[in-house]
């Protein structure tokens, strides 16, 4: 996978986030402060501008630019957290012009570790970690089993979607939803859903079928 | 949704344009989104920088000026500012004596200020932080993000600002900020949700005759719902919650704060009940503030913040202040 593949992925995330903007905001209204969709949409729009202003030379470069822009432009908790996910993944990829699915899986695992460290969140806290952790696990497993990249990315996306759905009954222990205590139960975590969108976008861009 | 706005996406910029036009004593950088005291930095004075999501006006930009903040970083509505803004503000107001970040305890604010502080350290600016977490509605435990920062932020900004104005070093300014936070607690009650411009509809639904107890300042639902009672009953719920966390006694600084959509006449009714409650518990409202200071857009409701005073804190509270939102003394 080359730089163009990564920028396609970013375009696909941008499209999905824009399409789900109202849904994400509505989920956030239930247990947070009603701005998740708007903030991510604004962040990815800024990423598009940044990418055309300074076209990245490598896949790693593209992810670092993506992450850095989210950190600088989004604000809230999602800016630093999503930004750190991509920025760390990009740093792990380094400056190779082509990356394999196994290398991408390892990079995303590093990104996830950085997110967990920054937000000190564990699985089950009702956060983005609940979608990304099973996604990375499924991706690593699929790659290890020798699955093709479309299949591997699909497995990752499915695991993320399942992880996101599984946040519904959980009681939030991190972020603004934690203030609600038991009242946070019965709601899908918006950050987990946007994480699932990110993984689904990866599958869509590998399938070339929009 | 009916609001006095031009477009959802330009709410913060348009408001800052108005702030700049109304207050020539401030310098408002619309590109980097930082509001400065016109004469910052002052050599040798500790700089005070705060910031947070917009929608809480006059917090924080309205508290920039003599005796309070040197700079404020307004984020999008209810969204913390980004590290770039904070770095810009911090490096600009650093007069060589270091800079104090006053941060409300929300995950987003904490992360963005932390990232900014690291970047500032790289540039050789010494930064200390006061984390404000006064809201007793949130249980501070391993299972939450910890108590939120609400009304006491104003107390910290005013008192630390006064001490910085006297030329105290960074460690002392940070210490008094932490002391104020430790001596302060808040509790809020909502009669209605707020409506963010982006969502266009109320963040939560509240039936006629119902109130939300223990709300924060972002329209996030509170701890529980209850039937709407009299002012006396609502204040009693708030004061009992405060009293459970911070035994009330002696001279007390009291803020009865409107959430943005509450008539002042109701806030004064609430203040009368707060005053009566304090007397019953052997405390005195030695200093008081009634009005809209730490708001939540158009939410109807109020919060009560108390700070148990010392002579030093009273002296610093009384010190002159000249900002758009708070102004007294010569």
Automatic annotation (TrEMBL), chain A:
PROSITE patterns (alphabetical): DHAL
GO cellular component: cytosol
UniProt keyword annotations, A-Z: Kinase, Transferase
GO terms, molecular function: glycerone kinase activity
Keyword presence, Transcription regulation: no
GO biological process, one term: glycerol catabolic process
Residue ranges annotated for the DhaL domain, each copy included: 4-204
Domain of life: Bacteria
NCBIfam families, sorted: dha_L_ycgS
Annotated protein name in UniProt: Dihydroxyacetone kinase subunit L
Species for this entry: Spongiactinospora gelatinilytica
From TrEMBL, chain B:
Gene3D superfamilies: Dihydroxyacetone kinase, domain 1 (3.40.50.10440), Dihydroxyacetone kinase, domain 2 (3.30.1180.20)
Keyword DNA damage: no
Short name of any one Pfam family annotated for the protein: Dak1
Domain DhaK per the UniProt entry, residue ranges: 7-328
One GO term (biological process): glycerol catabolic process
Top-level taxon: Bacteria
GO molecular function, one term: glycerone kinase activity
GO CC, one annotated term: cytosol
Keywords: Kinase, Transferase
UniProt cross-references to SUPFAM superfamilies, sorted A to Z: DAK1/DegV-like
InterPro entries: DhaK_1, DhaK_dom, Dihydroxyacetone_Kinase
NCBIfam families xrefs: dhaK1
Protein name, UniProt field: Dihydroxyacetone kinase subunit DhaK
Source organism: Spongiactinospora gelatinilytica
């Amino acid at each position: 996978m080359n730089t163009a593949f990564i920028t396609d992925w970013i375009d696909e995330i941008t499209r999905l986030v824009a399409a789900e903007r109202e849904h994400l905001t509505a989920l956030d209204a239930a247990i947070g402060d009603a701005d998740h969709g708007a903030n991510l949409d604004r962040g990815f729009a800024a990423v598009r501008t940044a990418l055309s202003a300074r076209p990245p030379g490598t896949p790693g470069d593209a992810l670092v630019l993506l992450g850095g822009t989210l950190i600088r432009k989004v604000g809230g908790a999602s800016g630093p957290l999503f930004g750190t996910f991509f920025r760390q993944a990009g740093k792990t990829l380094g400056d190779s012009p082509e990356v394999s699915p196994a290398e991408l899986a390892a990079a995303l695992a590093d990104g996830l570790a950085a997110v967990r460290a920054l937000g000190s969140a564990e699985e089950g806290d009702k956060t983005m970690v609940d979608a990304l952790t099973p996604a990375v696990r499924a991706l690593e497993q699929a790659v290890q089993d020798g699955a093709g990249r479309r299949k591997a990315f699909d497995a990752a996306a499915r695991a993320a979607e399942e992880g996101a759905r599984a946040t519904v009954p959980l009681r939030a222990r991190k972020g603004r939803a934690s203030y609600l205590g038991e009242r946070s139960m019965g709601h899908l975590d918006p950050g987990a859903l946007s994480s699932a969108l990110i993984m689904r976008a990866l599958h869509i861009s590998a399938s070339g079928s929009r | 949704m009916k609001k006095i706005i031009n477009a959802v996406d330009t709410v913060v910029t348009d408001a800052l344009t108005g702030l700049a036009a109304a207050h020539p004593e401030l310098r408002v950088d619309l590109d980097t989104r930082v509001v400065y005291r016109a004469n910052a930095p002052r050599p040798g004075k500790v700089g005070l920088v705060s910031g947070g999501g917009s929608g809480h006006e006059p917090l924080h930009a309205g508290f920039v000026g003599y005796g309070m903040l040197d700079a404020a970083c307004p984020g999008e509505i209810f969204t913390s500012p980004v590290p770039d803004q904070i770095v810009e503000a911090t490096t600009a107001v650093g007069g060589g004596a270091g800079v104090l970040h006053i941060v409300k305890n929300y995950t987003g604010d904490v992360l963005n200020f932390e990232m900014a502080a690291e970047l500032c350290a790289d540039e050789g600016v010494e930064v200390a932080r006061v984390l404000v977490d006064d809201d007793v509605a949130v249980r501070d435990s391993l299972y939450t993000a910890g108590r939120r920062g609400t009304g006491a932020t104003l107390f910290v900004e005013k008192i630390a600002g006064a001490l910085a104005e006297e030329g105290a070093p960074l460690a002392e300014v940070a210490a008094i900020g932490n002391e104020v936070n430790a001596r302060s607690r808040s509790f809020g009650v909502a009669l209605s949700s707020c409506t963010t411009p982006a969502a266009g509809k109320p963040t939560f639904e509240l039936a006629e005759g119902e109130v939300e107890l223990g709300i924060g300042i972002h329209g996030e639902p509170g701890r529980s719902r209850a039937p709407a009672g009299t002012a006396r009953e609502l204040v009693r719920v708030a004061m009992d919650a405060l009293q459970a966390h911070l035994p009330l006694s002696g001279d007390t600084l009291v803020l009865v704060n409107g959430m943005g959509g509450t008539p002042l006449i109701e806030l004064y009714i609430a203040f009368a009940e707060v005053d009566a409650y304090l007397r019953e518990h052997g405390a005195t409202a030695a200093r008081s503030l009634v009005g809209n200071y730490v708001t939540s857009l158009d939410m109807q409701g109020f919060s009560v913040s108390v700070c148990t005073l010392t002579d030093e804190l009273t002296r610093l509270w009384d010190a002159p202040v000249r900002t758009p939102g708070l102004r007294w003394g010569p």
